[in-house]
Amino acid sequence: SQVRSQLSVLQSVLEKLQSRKLSSLDRRQSHLPTCEVGASCLVKKGPRFGRLCDCPRPSTCNFFFLRCL
User: Fold this and answer.
1) Which residue ranges make up each domain of the chain?
2) What string of H, E and C letters represents the secondary structure of 23-38?
3) Tell me: the pLDDT tens digits for 16-51?
4) How far is CA 54 from the centre of its chain?
5) How many CB atoms lie under 10 A from the CB of residue 59?
6) What is the pLDDT of residue 23?
7) Which residue, 39, 42, 43, 37, is CA-closest to 59?
8) Other Cβ atoms within 10 Å of 45 Cβ, number
9) Would you say 42 and 22 are in contact if contact means Cβ atoms under 8 Å apart?
10) Coil, helix or strand for 55?
């Protein structure tokens, strides 16, 4: 009886954590606009990189040139 109630509480906590993780992932993906190939996609400030936009599917953001290639 006590074990079942603890399991149900753990299950509800797990479901809440999974829904939060998905919603934060959705927010991050929808926040950045899509840039064109050859456009700058990163900014470097000291040792850190900041993303400006997401590159289209076949291309990736190059960390040396800071552009979509």
Assistant:
1) 1-31, 33-69
2) HHHHHHHHHCCECCCC
3) 777 665 555 555 555 788 889 999 999 998 899 888
4) 11
5) 16
6) 53
7) 37
8) 7
9) no
10) coil
Q: What is the mean pLDDT of residues 50-67?
A: 91
Nearest to 41 by CA among 31, 26, 56: 56
In whole angstroms, what is the distance from residue 35 CA to residue 27 CA? 18
CA–CA separation, 39 and 22 (whole Å): 29
- The helix/strand/coil state of 42 is strand
What architecture does CATH give domain 33-69? Irregular (4.10)
Enumerate residues 6+ apart whose C-beta is below 8 A from 63: 42, 49
What is the per-residue pLDDT for 67? Answer: 93
Q: How far, CA to CA in Å, does 16 sit from each of 4, 28, 29, 64?
A: 19, 19, 20, 40
Which residues touch 52 (CB under 8 Å, ≥6 apart)?
32, 35, 40, 41, 42, 43
